[in-house]
Amino acid sequence: MRTQKLGKIVPTPDRAAARDALACLRNGGALYVGAECSNYALPPRVVREVETLLAAYAEGKTPLVSTSDQEIGTQEAAAYLKLSRPTVVKMMDDGRIAFRKPGKHRRVRIADLMAFERSLRRDQDAAMDELSALGQDAIGHAREIGSFDDEMM
After folding, report:
1. 26 with 51: CB under 8 angstroms?
2. I need a labelling partner for 133 at 20 to 30 A (CA). Which of 47, 118, 139, 153 fits?
């Protein structure tokens, strides 16, 4: 069985530098890129992306930087979604995650994976909202019939 190392742990000095830069940005600091002729302030969206990278470095993680049309395999997709590889394969085969299969291996575009993740999180949030509402209804009903008091919370 072949395993692939997805990243290495970020060295402590780099983590400290990332924490310092992140604190500066979060406290209103600006991010500039220097060129031979002058410095350029980065657009807010790019700064937010850099903050995400710095936060990962500060936590000792190695962030993944790629384009949205890049493809990854099922193992990397599973790691990204924090699901097992067999679960991701089943979701692909069920048509829930778009993929292509050049030869024997499934490949998924990062953009498709991110879209699926957003959809999955929306579904999870809706399910949690519904579960919370059901719980509140049950508490209300229990209070009405006198089998619940506030000390039970």
Report:
1. yes
2. 118
Q: What are phi and psi of 34, to 5 degrees?
A: -90, 145
Say what the pLDDT of residue 146 is.
82
Residue pointed to by tokens 């710095």: 54
CB count within 10 Å of CB 68 equals 11
CA angle 22, 28, 34 (to 5 degrees): 70
* C-alpha–C-alpha distance, residues 38 and 62, integer Å: 30
Domain boundaries, the chain: 12-58, 71-152
3-state DSSP assignment of residue 72: strand
Closest by CA to 113, choosing from 64, 43, 153, 147, is 64
Calpha distance 48→93 (Å, rounded): 35
Kindly report the pTM of this predicted structure.
0.54
Q: Are 91 and 80 in contact (CB under 8 A)?
A: no
More confident site: 139 or 40: 139
Contact status, residue 36 vs residue 55, Cβ threshold 8 Å: no
CATH fold for the domain made of 71-152: Multidrug-efflux Transporter Regulator; Chain: A; Domain 2 (1.10.1660)
